[in-house]
Structure formats: structure tokens, C-alpha cells
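Replying to the earlier thread about multi-chain prediction with a worked example.

Input:
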Amino acid sequence: MTDKTTSGAGWSRRRVLTTAASGVALAAASGFPMPAVAQARKLTYWGGLIFSEDANNLLVEAINAWGAANGVETEVVMINQNETTQKVSAAVASNTMPDALDVGLDLMLLLARQNQFILLDDVYNKVGDAHGGWYDGPARATDTTSEVGGRVGVPFGVNGNLLLRRRDLLEPAGFTEAPKTWAELAEQAAAVNAPPVYGLGLALSNVGDANVQVNVMQSYGGRIADDEGKKILLDSAETREWLTWLKGAWDKGLFPPGVTTWDGAGDNQAYLSGQAAFIANTGSVGIAARNDDPELFEGSAFSPLPAGPKGTISPITPQSRVITTGSQMQDEAKALVEHLSNPEFMNAYFNVAIYGPVLKNQEQLQAFDGSNSILVGLLGLAQNGTAPAYPDVYNAAYADFSSNFTVPKLAQRVVVDGWDFDRAIAEAVEQGQAIYNKY
Amino acid sequence: MADLNAHAGERQNRAAAMRLNLFAYALVIPVTLLIIGLVGYPFFFAIWVSFTDQVIGNVGKFIGFTNFAYLAGTSTFWAAIQNTVVIVVVTDILKLGIGLGLALLVHQHFPARGIFRSILLLPWAMPAFVAFLTWRVMYQPIGGRINLILTQTGLYPHVVDWLGQRHTAMGSVIVASVWRGFPFWFIPILVQLYSVPEEFYDAARADGANPWQRFRGVTLPGIKQVIIVPTLLSSIWTANAFEHVWLLTQGGPSDATMVFPVLAYFGMQTQRIGEAAAVSVYMLPALGILVIFATALMMRDDEQ
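Result:
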């Protein structure tokens, strides 16, 4: 009966096999990327998704409007910045990279070394010349010339940590000025520390926010590694001095409970819920407060990160636009990148995003006229911020070291496990050296 | 003549049988290819990658056991082994105990049994992301429900940082995982309980068996099969689970809850894909043994 059905009623064995084989071929083909030339010419842009929906929409609209005005079909995909690494990894492996994308410094340097991006010195110079030149910090931080023979990225914004404080709590306690040093910060935090409001909302967990402790340590004179990137230098008197400051603040109960396992939003939530008097944050908390809790926003103030005995370490994190080597529309992508630096768009973008300027003329934009305290802080960061990793050398080993949260884990050993400094430092040195030995 | 006809008929039958066999194999080929493509390829590719220095944008080159040696030299790796074993063993024992206990309870006749049964399924029905974030909120030292209950009822007057202290973090992760996972045990055990003939209990009672003896002599043998397979499957899932630890502690504090999947994720964050793959491959031998046992048991069930 079965035989008859398959052979006699339109579904012969041959037809079944042919259909099955076609299905397999189709399924197999769909798993492999089609050559770009075989697809419709469309300029694909991966934008970095940030907290501000207005900023995200603005970027999408600007790119699509540019495409419409120039007869270029565009597609903008906003990528969660926490997932950029994974998505780019998959795209590189499957040869489906977009034409252009926004990247942070780590990924830009890594992929530049893999020749995934074209050189953009011409666009970089043109944009710089047209807008009063580049600020020194982002210019130096994004310079890939020594590694790949030219620049692969055109910076469009910088961010980094600012100190956000509860002015409404601190001023009644007699502190009208922002703390100048980490010691002063602890002093001010102690003065307003009254649980459930805690003084220091600084993450000490396995998240990027906790790496602000690297900056604190460096401002005390501590170093991660030598300039050659060979030897870990954590075992120093300066590291111990930083740990003494940290342990002192911890023992005074200045850190809210939970900081050792906070996720990336831990400090945001602590500040917005009124549990922390100070946090170090990129400004996203300020935007959230301005939108959702204007009273808290009014009672808050931004300032640069405090200094240690050896100065202020306040690293900038530049964001850049890059164009991929495999793009079939490199000229169009270059024109787009150049277009996106225009003052009208950037002014509107800065007003809703959490980036500081990268071009000197941008200081004159309305966004930085002083009316927005977050942007004032970011402008200061762009002008005075330190290079990424400074005084250490920013390289692949340093990035790996940071991603492993070795310094926050050192802090955890001291405050969570109660290890003495020598033991905790010895473990961090061992782990750090193992990381640096890989490079 | 009759012999010739018989032989010819036999040949025709054999040819027809062979054609039928070939046809059957041909029908299986597409599925086999798909399975190889969708399951086999990623599996063996991950193993291959673990022996390379692949980073994003570069396929890398073969470096032997370098990734494995590096991982074995880190204290975090050893913490991950210890923590993974602890979480798997303790979580599964607790899930089994709670699932079995509740199944035995719900198997009894009492009013609103159906509603009770449905409520017990809710943790399993809730998306893991929501479930563990909810637990995270409940564990919060300030404003968290658990601390509020403890302090307001006077059971414990001090605020506890459940997730932030070494001695409470692992227990907190385990409690949340057990809460989310026990229905996976409860359901099959309950179903199996219904299949144990009531006559067996009657006979045991007639022989003077007390409740514990009836449980050991009748209930346990009757549900043994549905305990073993879920144990193995749950062990594999728990060892591979990422979200419970990531959403609650990110492996902290101080590696107190670091497990293999979180360690592999950190490997990805450092953009060293070979190293991240090596973390996963380290788990393969242990998980492979569990998979073989589970598969053998399930196939034995099928045959029975």
C-alpha cells in the first residue's frame, strides 16, 4: 500500500528523493553566506546601541536620510554594545561583516591587526581639518599607525568615568566642593554615610565598572606591568597604599552591601534608588535621573575622578567608526562617515547621547554651552582625560588583564575573603603574569 | 520449470527488498546530513578551536594543549571545577528530594489538589531570566524581601548580603536554582506514581508493611526509572547552565560561585575564542559519561 502510494499517486521514489535532495541543498546553501556581489548593493551600518533611545533613533535617521539624499540604499542595525564582540566574531567567521560599524577601542585594535578594516587616514584628516583638529586624547588613543601603517578609525565620541555625587546630602554636611583626592572622597563619603544611604557606590565585582579600581590604584602610583608588557608590577608599595585606602573605606562600612556582586547596572540602581552618595559612572545615570527623577538630578553634581598621590588617572574610552575590508561600498561608507561628523548632527547627538566631543570645534556646539552638567563633565574628560591604560601601556595583554577583572578580584580577596595584602597581591601577580605571558 | 519460476520469483523478491532498503536509507540521508551539519559540525569545530589560538577575526593556528595548560594554571579554573561539582551535586540532590516529596504529597487525595499541582509547575514555566532576576532582587541586602522578612519577624536582626559574601553566595545560587528546577523532577515522578498499581500497596499492607517499607518496597522500585534519567539530564543541564550564576553573582564574590559556563563567557569577553572553547571542552569527558548513561537508559526504556 505504501509502495503504491509513493510510486503511483504523484509521489514517485525518484520525486521524493529529488525533493529531499533539493531540500538539503537549499538548507545547506542557506547556511553559507552568499558572496556580497550576488546580493543587492546596500550599505549596512552597525551602530552601537546606547542607553539613550533618542540617540539611537537619531543615528538611524541620520544615516537613512543621508542614504536617501545620495541615492544609496542603507540599512542600520543597532547592536547592543555588550554583544558587539560576539556578533562581530560571528560576522567575521561567516564573512557577513557590515560595510561600516561603531566600535570601541579593544575591538578596533584587535580587528585592525587582523586587517579587517581599511585605512581611513584621508577621512580622518579631512574631518579634523574641517572641525578645528582633534583633541589630543582621542587622537592618540585611536592611532593605529604603528600597528597597521595608518588609522583605521574615525573617532566620534569619548566616554569615561565621572564622579557623580549627591550634592543635596554633601552640602548640608559642609562639603560644597567635589573631592579632589580619593582620601577626600572617603572623608566626604564617611560624613554622609548613614545606612541605608552609603557613601561609596563603587562596584567591586566582576564587571567593567569595577575596573575603576585600576584607575584608583594607578593614581596611587601603582602599575599593572612594565612598558615592555612583560613583567607584572602589581607587587609594590603603591599597590599596598591603594589597598590600605580601599580596606579602610570598606571597614568603615562606606560601601553598600552587595557591591562585590553588582552587575553592570549595580551602581546605577544604587544611585537612582538613593542608596549611594558617590558613584563613578559614564553619565548614563545622570540621563536616567534627569528623565525619571528630576529632583535627584537637581541634587546631583558631576566632577572628574579624584586624584591620588601621583595625580589623576581618568582614562577616556573613544568610540570610532570603521569601514570593513570586505565592504563593496567603501567609497560610499567613507562619505557617510565624513557626513556623520557634521556639526548639526553631532550637536543633536551629543545632546541626547553620553559622549564627549572629539573635535576641538565641537566645544563651541550648543550641547557644551554649560547648561548640561553631564556634557560639561564629558567635555572636561575629552580635554583632560588620560590615555587608556595610562600610565600603563594599552595593548592586547592589558585588555585581556582588564577583561579578567584581576584588580577587582584582588580587591575582593582583601574585603570578601579577608586575605592579607601580601597573599592577595601574590595571587594577582601570578594571574596577571600568566595573562601577560600569553602575548 | 516450477523450480525456475520459484528462483525467478525469489530473485525478484530479493531485488524488491533491496530496492526497498535502499529507498529507506535514501529517505534517512537528508536527516542524517542535517544532523551532521547542525549537531556534529559545531561540536567537532568547537573541539578543534580549543586547540588553536583563534581570536576574533583570525582563525588562528594549531597550538596543541596550550589553552588547556594555561587554564589549568589558574586558580579560577580550579575554583570553577569545585563550584561546578558542588552546584551539580547539591542542586540535583535537593531538586530530587523536593520533587519527590512534593510528588508523593500531591499523589495523595486532598481538596484543591489540582490547583496545588498547577502552582508547583509555575517556577518551571517562568523564563529563567525573569526567575533569577527576581531572586536577585529578593536577595538584595537593602529592600530585598528575604532580609525584610528576617528582620521584621525578628528571626535574624541583621541585614545579610546573601550574594556578596563567600559563605552565603553559593548557597543562595543553589536555592534559586533548586526553586527553578524542582518541577522538572516533580512532574515525571508524579506521573510515574500513578502507574504503580494500587494492588501492590494493598498487598504490602496485607503483609504488614509500614509506610517507610511500602515506600522502599513498592514506590521506589516503581519510580526508579524516572529518577535516574532526570538525574542524568539535570546534571548535564545544571553543569551547562549559565544564567543562574551570571544573573545572580557573575561568578563572584572572589570566584566563590565561578562555574565553567561563566568562565567560558569570560573567555569570550577577552576575545580569545580558542581559550573559551577550551573551557567548554574541559567539561566534555564528565558530561560525555553522563550523556552515554542517559542515552543508554533511555534506549533501554524504549526497548522495554
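The two ends of chain A are 68 Å apart (CA to CA).

Feel free to reuse this layout for your own posts.
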